[in-house]
Description:
Blueprint (H helix, E strand, L loop, with lengths): L3 H12 L3 H32 L9
Amino acid sequence: MTNWQTDIIPKWLEEAKTYPTKALLYMAGEVYAEQARRLETEKGKLDGMMWSPEQWNKI
């Protein structure tokens, strides 16, 4: 599977010729990284809830 943030976006940034295109690609990489971080955080929370019977009614 391709990692957009580390493989594709840097390549496109090198090829981009205008500032607006570079800015858009840069921010797309930042958004992708933030979403990946949030997804990992939520996976951890869900995993923690699954092991805690007191939290089962909150899922």
